[in-house]
Amino acid sequence: MSGTASGTGLALPEWTTARPGKPWTDDPYAHALRTGRGPLFLRRLSPPVHPDGTGKAEDLLPLDVERWCAAPDAADTDVLHRCTGPVLDVGCGPGRLVAGLAARGIRALGVDVSPAAVARTRQHGGAAVRRSVFDRLPGEGRWGTVLLMDGNVGIGGDPVALLVRLRAVVAPGGRLLAEAAPHDVDEHLTVRLEDAHGRHGRPFAWARLGTNALLSAAEAAGWLLTGRWTAEGRPFVELHRPQPGHHEHPTATAGPAHS
């Protein structure tokens, strides 16, 4: 039941007065996607928030809502050029990449736990389903490319487990295009979504991996590195699921770097 602003009689969204049941669903993230605007943050809760309930500036990790809700930029377009269909976008958010692929005539599907994300993806011409990546997904084992963009390597807080899961989703010989954090970090966190007014959702596990940490997790999960590049200051890697019987370890090729 929604709350009411004191003295006004105006109904407020549920997340303004009570913590929602699940992250990314009915908290400030959903509101930001509906409006296409931030500011929105992940707040580090591990180590815990300070005793007085406040936090330092470095406790807040900004989320680039406006970019996610815009059309694909130059770095995104570089990723789209590397996709071989069909494409599964894990944590598709508002669906700019799914819609961009559809506009190119490439079959693509977004998967996200957020109803607002799925709705916005569909509104912009993309296909999407509301589901966790750890649930049964359509077309398992037959996807040509899986996308893991915008920090989504952090989903679940255990990147190795996530990358192992995605090996079962992509076709043998298929590829995973993943975006790393722009700094050399390897963090396993408890966080919550929070807006500029301190309204927030429930805590959840998350991770932040720079390129080195991402490559280490990918190797542990059995992926082969076949490319790495930077575009618009964003680092990316291309990984392949080995074909059955493959035992070689090819040298990774570096893609073009862009500033």
Tell me about this structure:
The chain is α/β, with parallel strands linked by helices. The protein has seven helices and twelve strands. It has helices at 28-35, 65-69, 74-81, 96-103, 115-123, 159-169, 211-220, and strands spanning 40-44, 60-63, 87-90, 108-112, 128-130, 143-148, 170-179, 186-195, 204-209, 224-231, 234-240, 253-254. The chain has an eight-stranded mixed β-sheet, sandwiched between helices. Strands 2-1-8-9 form a four-stranded antiparallel β-sheet. A hairpin with an 8-residue loop joins strand 8 (186-195) and strand 9. Helix 1 runs parallel beside helix 5 and helix 6 packs across helix 7 (211-220). Residues 1-20, 48-55 and 248-259 have low confidence and may be disordered.
What is this structure's SSE topology?
Blueprint: H1 28-35, E1 40-44, E2 60-63, H2 65-69, H3 74-81, E3 87-90, H4 96-103, E4 108-112, H5 115-123, E5 128-130, E6 143-148, H6 159-169, E7 170-179, E8 186-195, E9 204-209, H7 211-220, E10 224-231, E11 234-240, E12 253-254
Helix pairs in contact: 1-5, 6-7
What's the overall geometry?
globular
- Rounded to the nearest angstrom, the radius of gyration is 19 Å
Poorly predicted sequence stretches spanning 5 or more consecutive residues: 1-20, 48-55, 248-259
Q: Give the ordered list of helices and strands.
A: HEEHHEHEHEEHEEEHEEE
Total helical elements: 7
**Overall strand count:** 12
Overall mean pLDDT stands at: 85
Helicity level: 10-25%
DSSP strand (E) fraction?
25-35%
Strand order of the largest sheet: 5-4-3-6-7-11-10-12
> Gap between N and C termini, in Å?
48 Å
Structural class: alpha/beta
The main sheet comes to: 8 strands, mixed
